[in-house]
Input
Amino acid sequence: MSSGALSVREATKVYDPDGARVVALDRCSLEIGAGDFSVVVGPSGCGKTTLLNAIAGFHELSSGEIYLDGDLLSSPTKPATPGADRVVVFQNGALFPWMTILDNVAFGPLAAKGYSKEEAHALARQKLEDLGLAQIAFDYPGQISSGMRRRAEIARAMTLKPKVLLLDEPFRALDALTKTVSHQFLMEVYDRDRPTVFFITHDLDEAVFLASRVFVMTTRPATVKKILDVPLPRPRDYRLLATAEYQSLRDECQEAVREEARKAFSKGEREM
Ligand SMILES: Nc1ncnc2c1ncn2[C@@H]1O[C@H](COP(=O)(O)OP(=O)(O)OP(=O)(O)O)[C@@H](O)[C@H]1O
Ligand SMILES: [Mg+2]
Output
């Protein structure tokens, strides 16, 4: 049976540092099927990372609930608990600079799953291979390119065989070509392992190219403005970008995002 279905129900998150009340999520509800590739887009500061952090178990909701496969993951009364079933890949990366890439990637199964060193290394080598990084296994993070570091982080996350892979603008800082290569590897890993993916981006080409479904969020406080299904066949490659079907989905996505960005500007928020 496939697993990794997420259900976000009326999630509200209010930050209240020193009495400066910021409502980041307001009764936000969304359903993500097991094994879906969901991409979340929306104006800057609308609450995307806040939602990801609640799913990851980094903070509690102010009200509402999040369920994973029907089990309560988050609510105001349930202490936030991260778990190896929900792994996060951050924008700024988190590889240990003093460890080789192989040791970095093997770290999760060693620490979180109780694997032997041999087992953890075998798994890490497989994931490095999957992400086209076999040749840099013994390099240190400082010796490889930023695109390779991002891929190494995805390899590290996938060694934990998570039900849900959470990615917060993982390729934001990459140049266009490196991004393209990273997309291809991520798609291959997704097609092979089929985790449920929750991927945040501001790049609409990236969103439509990768997603099974795009959630366009409103300006803060975030709720779902529009759900765009992307029924393009997989495996996907870059020839897809030239098709009329892709272009039409991308235009539809852009229209929804533009409308919200305009509202955000008029409310004095930052750009999309
Ligand atoms: N720890 C915090 N304490 C107080 N306010 C916060 C905190 N984290 C986020 N916020 C505020 O909550 C709102 C939503 O922030 P969040 O980081 O979720 O937005 P985002 O959609 O991820 O933005 P971006 O696209 O810029 O990454 C913003 O107004 C932000 O300033
Ligand atoms: Mg963010």
Notes: The helical segments are 48-56, 101-112, 117-130, 146-158, 176-193, 204-210, 244-266. The two ends are 39 Å apart (CA to CA). The longest strand covers residues 22-32. The CA atoms of residues 102 and 137 lie 5 Å apart.
